[in-house]
Structures are given as structure tokens and as C-alpha cells.
Design goal:
The protein has 757 residues and is of the alpha/beta class. The chain folds into 5 domains: 66 residues, no CATH class; 109 residues, OB fold (Dihydrolipoamide Acetyltransferase, E2P) (Beta Barrel); 270 residues, no CATH class; 32 residues, no CATH class; 250 residues, Ribonuclease Z/Hydroxyacylglutathione hydrolase-like (Metallo-beta-lactamase, Chain A). Helices cover 46% and strands 17% of the residues. It has 25 helices and 22 strands. An 8-stranded mixed sheet has the order 13-12-11-10-9-8-21-22, with no helix packed on it. A 7-stranded mixed sheet has the order 14-15-16-17-18-19-20. Helix 8 packs parallel to helix 10.
């Protein structure tokens, strides 16, 4: 029976690895044939179970893809009646709200599929509340995110949440109030916190721990918790639900031991299990019964029911059944990072409860947090490419502070609200003081040398790493400890280094902006830094880590436009920079004192490992009318290849460059100026460069219409190959003296949700 459950789990999880979705009908047909043949060969029955489970997941994935808004309505404004779902959020880019569309109120021809969910943003602030009905004027686009190594997969997250469209709100008209719900109560608590504590960071964390509402927790706080490996504790999650439930079980065990005669005729397990379930359900309700919380509650309920009726059932069997039922209930949840982190944390807690030794509670608690830390390491490396070496110390302090201090105080304050609002605020202040102290402690830890490390592992290496961790966590006698050391050996295998005279060119998908990484054998230069701090932190920095960059030998900021400079502050905080080039340093930026600073000027040149770098513009003595035309123009060349980067240089500056230096412009690869705008890449300039390949870096459905149709037509006329980050994601080119170009397209790495039309 265990094998059947295992093959069901493997079939459901296979959805993550599918490059394209197979036909559900064919999968079911093959599965039925295998079932018939299984009467003679029983192993075929397991394969049939695998295919049936896969077909169920594929059906839901295909249904999601079919529910995406059609391309024909993208960018078109129309009115629609919607129902507000969950709590509105506030981001640096405006208000964000999730809605369920109910009825079109425009002449637009579009049949809204049932149970459709949209995620919308607006520059204005509307009084959205849960379950309200609003008439909105919206412009939609299909789910689309940047696609880059190491970066957060926004499209996969939208898929896991069932969001079939994103868009902007033009106008909103209130229609009807919604019925009372947990979400409305949670929103009222948020408003109370804002009124009492303002923008206090610790207050935002306290609210997140109480209700799962993260709206008041700034990005800086999440960065701190990520750096110290304590993120899993800072919001209601599977870990928190299980810790709360286990705390209740420990409390009951203590009461029974204190008064054994009272519970003489009632088995301990019979008392503990209902209490654990009750606490878990109550805590889940506080979190608004969000999807991660619901998944955890399902797992806890299944575990308790199986334990209640089958006293001899193994811990592994409980976890396996719980996992299968969760992924069959929500097949698309396998794409959510939170699902895997939550399941792993809960699995460790369940396994620990079944394998714990008879030892002092302090030692038991220390062993538990060590288990949690080790078990989450492979997933952390897989999803984020980084590991906090101070995590064991941080969690050893943070777990009791949060679990036995902050959370009980928050719950106590919640109860006191019905007695005395003053007492409630006072108790919440104690909780906030504890969080302030904890944040201060974690800040000190995060500044320690080597507190946070970044590693790049291949998927196969991560598998060996995970198996090594598993060998360490298994009880003695199940697996020998030396097996963990043997399985770690592939981790130390390094990829072959780049050769002298070669260039690795990466056009990083940063949306509407530009960031290009140029790597020789031992040196790295970054040309421009994307549109904003988020691009620097969430896209460029992870990509640099993934590419093996620990320092930047050069940083060139082409010109002072936000879509080229926005991520510079994040990069300056993460990487030492030896040399910096810029046409004009953006306001508010201060380069480190040990960084060599130079204004871009034609004539600057240097060489790294037989690869030449030459600045062609701005030209001293020439007049440039605006920042775009003052862009740093960089030509990178070696034996057999050449690349030209022009920033946002427009036609007037192109003419100046042509008059001064037309013979040095010829290049094999041209990164189109100004994202392919009609104001750049004039016919004369294109003729002088004469590229084989033109590359566009722009955002999906951007408001500027980049790349422009005339430029694309101009390139097609000359039979120049065109690559772009919009449809291809991050583009990686390996250039060598053989004059061949090896290309890697990130959107073609085998994910069906990225490859969908």
C-alpha cells in the first residue's frame, strides 16, 4: 500500500518538471492499458497509478492555462463587476488587491471562466474591504514575470495561486458591502495596529504573527530575517501552526504528569490529539484560513486521524498520505516555494515527535531547531542560492522568543480587547518590545563575518546534498552516519572554469530596463542595473550569485535614467566594486571610497584575459542635449567576437559617433539602444555596426511600445537575428575565438508555464 501512495505522490510532483503538458486523454488511456496488463505484471499497476495521478495534475494545469485572459483583450480598458478577495496590500508601486471577476459591464467580447482570480494594482488608494463588490475599469495582461536564474519565479507563484491575469485599475466605483468574515476582522486589526503604533516595524511583525497579515512588514525586515535564517518564524505558517499545537500537547502532558489520578482512565494520546487539532484549527482561523495554513491543517488533521484509528501506523506513512491528499486537493500548489518549505518544516516536526529521545527539554528543543535548520538547507539553497551560517544561533534564540513570548502575548492581548482596550495596547507593546530586542540581536548576528554565504549548485548536486542531510537526520540504525560524508563529495565538484580569450555575455531579464553582465575568465563587469531597488535585490543580485560573481571588477552606469540605475543601491550594498564608470552619477548614490571612479569618455580602454573593452562615447568636446545621448557606449571585443552596448543613445548621438568613429563600430552583436525605441538605431548607424544579432531588453506589454515596429522591420530587412528578453527571458551567450555563439534562453529551460503561448 505504501508503494501506491508513493507513486501517487511522484505522479503529482512530476508536474514541476514537465517542459510541456501532455494530453490528459492519452495519459488516462495508457494508464488503463497498464492496469489491464497489471494482472500479469503487478509492477505495471504502480506505473498506472503514477500516470493517473499525473493526469489529474496535468488536467488542473491545463485548465489554468486555458483560463488565462486571451491576448486579444490585453491592454484594452473595460468595466467589470468584481468581488474583493482577502486583504488589500500596499507596495512601493501602489495599492494591490486580489479580486474575483463576476460580470462584464462593457461591450468587450470575453466569457469570464468560473472561479477566476485577478491581481490588480492602482496608483490611487481605494477603501477596498474583503467581500465587497466594486465596478472597476481595468486593463489586463496575461501572467508574466521576469525569467532569470536565481530570481523569484513570479509566473510560477501566480500559477500556484490560481491568478489568471494581472492588471491596473483605472477607476473604481463602490457597489455593495460584503458579508462579515475573518478577513474583515483581520483588516480591522491592521487598522487598529496602524492607529496605535504607526509604521513601527516590530508592530508590523507582531501583526503578521497574530493574523498572518504581512502588509505592515517592510522589505528591510524580511531581508534581515532571510539573512539570519528566521523567515519561517515571522509569519503564521505550517511551522507556526505545528509549534503552537505541539506546545499545547507539551502543556497537557505536564498537567497529566502533575495530576495523574485525574486522568487515570484516559490514555494520554486520546487527550493529546484532540487538543492538538483544536489548537491548530484555532490558530489557522487567526490566519484567515489562507492556503498555506489550510494545507498545514489538512496535514495535521490527517496525521491525527490516522494516529487515532491506527496506533501502529508509521510516521512516514502519515506524512506520505498527507502529502498525497494535499497535492491532489491543490495540484498547482507544488509550484509554490512556501508549500515545500512549509511541508518540510511540518514533516520535521512530525518526525521529531515520533523519534524524540528521553532527554531534558532544553536539549530536546536544541535538537529540534537543529533538525529544522538542517532540513531546510537544501530547499533554501535550491530556491534562494544562499545559506545563513548564523541560522542555528538565530533560531535557538528566536524560536523561544517568538513561540513562548511574542505569540502568547499577542493572543493574550487579543482576549483582553473585550475587557480593556488600554490593557490590550499595553500587552501588545510588551510583544513589540520583545520583537525590537530580537531584531537588534539578529542585526548584530547578520553583521558577523561570513554570516551569509551564497552557493551555486547544479540540481544533481543539490540532490546529493539533500540525501546527505537526510542521512544525518535519520535515527541511528536506519542509515550509517558516514553515508552523509560520502554523499557530500559531489558538492565539492566544481564546474570547469571559463577559458582565456572567451566572453560570457548575459542580458538579464529585468523587465523594462537594462542590465548586462560581461564575464571574462577571471573578471566581471556589470553594465547598468535595472529599473529599481527590487530589480537589484530580487533579480540582478541573485543572477550575479548564480553566475559565480562575488565582486565586480567594473560597474558602468550608462546614464542617469531610473530604468538603468534603479538597482545600483542594492548592488553597492552586496558587492565590492573595484572600478565605476558613469556619464553622470545618479542623485543619492555614494560610491565606496575604495572604488575607483571615472567619468565615461571616448578613448578609455583596458584588457582582461585577451578581451578588450573600449569606451566610444561620450566624446570630449561634443555637445549632448540630454542624458540619453550622454550614454556610455562600450565595445567589447576578442578574437572571433565583438559586442556593442549603447545604453539609451538616440539618433543625434549616433550621428556624432558615426562622424568621429564609424570604422570602430562594426560588431557581431548589438544590444539595441533605448530598448529598441524608434528614436535609436537609425539606418546609418545600423549599417555601420552591421551586426549578425540584435538584442532587445524591454518589459512585457510596456507602456512605451518597445521595441518599435520600424526598428524591427529595419532589422528584418537586413536579415539580422533578433533576440529579446520579453519572450525569451534572460539571454546567455558564450563567445569564443571560434566565432561561434552558444546561446542559452532562460524561458526554454523546460517549464510548461513559461513555454505556454
Amino acid at each position: 500500500m505504501e508503494r501506491v501512495w508513493l507513486f501517487m505522490a511522484l505522479g503529482a510532483v512530476s508536474l514541476v518538471f514537465l517542459p510541456m503538458l501532455p494530453s490528459v486523454s492519452i495519459l488516462i488511456l495508457v494508464a488503463l492499458c497498464l492496469l489491464v496488463m497489471g494482472f500479469k505484471w503487478p509492477i505495471l499497476r504502480l506505473l498506472a497509478v503514477f500516470l493517473l495521478s499525473m493526469s489529474w495534475s496535468v488536467y488542473h494545469a491545463q485548465n489554468y492555462l486555458n483560463q488565462k485572459v486571451p491576448s486579444s483583450i490585453e491592454g484594452k480598458a473595460f468595466r467589470v463587476l468584481v468581488k474583493v478577495e482577502g486583504l488589500p496590500e500596499y507596495t512601493p508601486f501602489g495599492q494591490k488587491v486580489r479580486v474575483q471577476p463576476l460580470e462584464l459591464r462593457s461591450r468587450l467580447v470575453y466569457n469570464i471562466p468560473p472561479n477566476t482570480h485577478w491581481q490588480l494594482t492602482t496608483d490611487k488608494v481605494y477603501p477596498f474591504r474583503p467581500n465587497q463588490l466594486w465596478q472597476l475599469s481595468v486593463t489586463l495582461k496575461r501572467p508574466h514575470g521576469t525569467a532569470s536564474a536565481g530570481a523569484f519565479d513570479y509566473e510560477a507563484w501566480l500559477l500556484s495561486e490560481g491568478v489568471t491575469a494581472t492588471g491596473k485599475i483605472g477607476r473604481a466605483i463602490f457597489v455593495q458591502a460584503g458579508e462579515r468574515s475573518f478577513d474583515e476582522w483581520r483588516l480591522q486589526l491592521r487598522e487598529k495596529f496602524q492607529q496605535a503604533f504607526g509604521d513601527n516595524v516590530a508592530a508590523g511583525v507582531s501583526l503578521a504573527l497574530l493574523t498572518g497579515d504581512r502588509a505592515l512588514v517592510p522589505a528591510s525586515a524580511w531581508d534581515l530575517y532571510a539573512a539570519t535564517g528566521t523567515s519561517h518564524l515571522m509569519a503564521i505558517s505550517g511551522t507556526h501552526v505545528m509549534l503552537a499545537a505541539m506546545m499545547a500537547a507539551w502543556f497537557l502532558s505536564g498537567v497529566i504528569k502533575r495530576f495523574p489520578s485525574v486522568f487515570l482512565h484516559v490514555p494520554l494520546a486520546r487527550l493529546r490529539l484532540p487538543l492538538v487539532l483544536t489548537v491548530a484549527l484555532a490558530y489557522g482561523c487567526l490566519a484567515g484560513l489562507s492556503l498555506p495554513t489550510l494545507r498545514t491543517l489538512v496535514m495535521v488533521t490527517i496525521s491525527i486521524v490516522l494516529t487515532w484509528f491506527q496506533r501502529e501506523v508509521s510516521v512516514f506513512a502519515i506524512l506520505l498520505r498527507a502529502f498525497v491528499l494535499i497535492v491532489l486537493w491543490q495540484p498547482l500548489s507544488v509550484h509554490a516555494i512556501g508549500f515545500w518549505l512549509s511541508f518540510m518544516a511540518v514533516a520535521v516536526l512530525v518526525l521529531w515527535s515520533g523519534w524524540q529521545r528521553q532527554e531534558h527539554q532544553v536539549f530536546a528543543f536544541g535538537r529540534l531547531q537543529l533538525w529544522l535548520t538542517l532540513a531546510l538547507v537544501p530547499l533554501t539553497l535550491c530556491f534562494f542560492g544562499r545559506l545563513s551560517l548564523v541560522s542555528p544561533i538565530a533560531n535557538f534564540v528566536a524560536i523561544p522568543v517568538i513561540t513562548f513570548g511574542v505569540v502568547p502575548l499577542d493572543l493574550l492581548a487579543l482576549v483582553l480587547g473585550g475587557i480593556s482596550p488600554e490593557w490590550q495596547i499595553s500587552v501588545w507593546r510588551w510583544s513589540i518590545h520583545l520583537i525590537d530586542w530580537l531584531n537588534s540581536f539578529l542585526s548584530q548576528l547578520s553583521t558577523l563575518p561570513y554570516a551569509q554565504q551564497f552557493w551555486v549548485f547544479s540540481p544533481l548536486t543539490l540532490v546529493f546534498f539533500a540525501l546527505s542531510v537526510l542521512a544525518l537526520l535519520l535515527p541511528k540504525g536506519v542509515a550509517p552516519r558516514y553515508l552523509a560524508v560520502i554523499l557530500l563529495l559531489p558538492v565539492y565538484c566544481r564546474l570547469e572554469a571559463r577559458q582565456e580569450g572567451t566572453l560570457r555575455l548575459s542580458i538579464i531579464d529585468v523587465g523594462q530596463g537594462l542590465s548586462v553582465l560581461l564575464q571574462t575568465q577571471h573578471h566581471s563587469l556589470l553594465y547598468d542595473t535595472g529599473a529599481n531597488t527590487m530589480a537589484g535585490e530580487r533579480i540582478i543580485t541573485p543572477y550575479l550569485r548564480w553566475s559565480g560573481v562575488s565582486r565586480l571588477d567594473g560597474l558602468m552606469i550608462s546614464h542617469n535614467d531610473s530604468d538603468h540605475t534603479g538597482g545600483a543601491d542594492a548592488l553597492l550594498a552586496q558587492f565590492p566594486i573595484q572600478r565605476a564608470f558613469y556619464s553622470a552619477l545618479p542623485e543619492g548614490y555614494t560610491l565606496p571610497k575604495n572604488t575607483s571612479q571615472q567619468i565615461c569618455q571616448a578613448g578609455q580602454h583596458w584588457q582582461w584575459e585577451q578581451v578588450s573593452f573600449a569606451v566610444l562615447s561620450p566624446i570630449v568636446g561634443q555637445h549632448y542635449d540630454k542624458d540619453n545621448n550622454r550614454s556610455c557606449v562600450l565595445r567589447v571585443s576578442g578574437q572571433g567576437f565583438s559586442v556593442l552596448l549603447t545604453g539609451d543613445m538616440e539618433t543625434p548621438a549616433e550621428k556624432i559617433l558615426l562622424a568621429a568613429n564609424s570604422r570602430q563600430l562594426a560588431s557581431q552583436i548589438l544590444v539595441l539602444g533605448h530598448h529598441g525605441s524608434k528614436t535609436s538605431t537609425s539606418p546609418e548607424f545600423l549599417a555601420a555596426v552591421n551586426p549578425q544579432l540584435a538584442i532587445v531588453s524591454a518589459g512585457y506589454r510596456n507602456q512605451f511600445g518597445h521595441p518599435s515596429a520600424p526598428v524591427i522591420e529595419r532589422l528584418n530587412t537586413k536579415h539580422i537575428t533578433i533576440d529579446n528578453t520579453i519572450t525569451q527571458g534572460t539571454l546567455i551567450y558564450q563567445l569564443s575565438p571560434t566565432a561561434t555563439i552558444q546561446k542559452e534562453v532562460w524561458r526554454e529551460r523546460g517549464h510548461y508555464w513559461l513555454n505556454s503561448p
